[in-house]
Specification:
alpha/beta, Rossmann fold, three-stranded mixed β-sheet, 10 helices, 9 strands, 42% helix, globular
Length: 293
């Protein structure tokens, strides 16, 4: 009996021995803190904003853009204010591609790059609000005054800059794109089979995407944007301002189909593509997107 007792004691001691903690993962990706935001705004300064070329009596498109930007800034500041100061680690910035010729633009973008951390003072909120209330309008007025609309190279931005400029591994990355949905730039105009780095109303007509079966035609002929990047699954994208030319009732849907397929191909899971609606209608959508709702 004594031998059996000792044997049971040994088994009990062995089974109670603590399991060692798992060794740390050396190759795992960094954890993303979804409560810390890295927010970027890419502005298309092509002739879509020209009130002479593309007038809108209800509200000019450059004015809509500036109001969209105010709503984006409002959503960003709402997010910051919802946090404890010790957890502040958020930033917001504005980009153009290519850069406008006016050297003042560089100064504007520097001013519009803002960051919050645990040492941020309360009056910084007012400073950011003031910058985002005044400088975006200055940017658009400067571009319109310059009148040299070189197009917007959104494709090249996604190819060469989006990962460096708009993605931080430890943050929730959100990119707003203010554009009419057309994509064109002389320096980046090419095709690979039936896919292109650009989209114009002329190309839509050439590809016979003017009827209700445009999706079938796109799928059959493999029309679309050339893929510009891979694995952008840690980037959320919201496109604001889709504004099709008149004459083709399916133009807007074709534009959105091009963008949607492009995002899916680049593994962007979370995206929205919105038309050039009045800012008061889009503000709730913008605020919800930033809040992650």
């Amino acid at each position: 009996m004594r031998k059996i007792f000792y044997l049971l004691m040994i088994i009990s001691l062995v089974s109670c021995k603590k399991t060692p903690p798992p060794s740390p993962c050396t190759n795992c990706p960094p954890e993303v803190d979804s409560n810390n935001i890295n927010l970027s705004i890419l502005i298309d300064l092509s002739d879509r904003i020209d009130p002479k070329t593309n007038p809108n009596p209800t509200m000019e498109y450059f004015q809509r853009d500036t109001e969209y930007i105010k709503s984006i800034e409002k959503g960003f500041l709402n997010h910051i204010k919802s946090k404890k100061i010790i957890t502040y680690d958020d930033q917001m910035q504005v980009f153009f591609n290519p850069e406008p010729s006016d050297p003042k633009m560089n100064e504007f973008t520097k001013e519009l790059k803002v960051a919050f951390d645990k040492n941020t003072e309360r009056n910084y909120f007012d400073s950011v609000d003031k910058k985002y209330s005044e400088l975006p309008l200055n940017i658009y007025q400067s571009a319109i005054h310059d009148g040299n609309y070189v197009g917007s190279d959104i494709w090249e931005f996604f190819k060469n800059k989006v990962k460096d400029y708009c993605i931080k591994n430890d943050k929730r990355n959100i990119l707003f794109i203010l554009t009419d949905g057309y994509m064109y730039h002389d320096n980046t105009k090419f095709a690979e089979e039936n896919k292109t780095s650009y989209l114009t109303t002329k190309l839509i007509k050439t590809n016979s995407l003017t009827t209700s079966n445009f999706k079938d035609i796109i799928e059959k002929n493999k029309f679309g944007f050339v893929k510009a990047n891979d694995n952008l699954n840690n980037l959320e994208v919201i496109v604001l301002g889709i504004n099709p030319e008149k004459g083709n009732p399916f133009e807007e849907a074709v534009i959105k189909e091009y963008w949607e397929n492009w995002f899916k191909e680049m593994k962007i899971k979370n995206y929205q593509i919105k038309s050039a609606d009045l800012p008061s209608n889009l503000e709730p959508i913008i605020l919800k997107a930033i809040a992650g709702k």
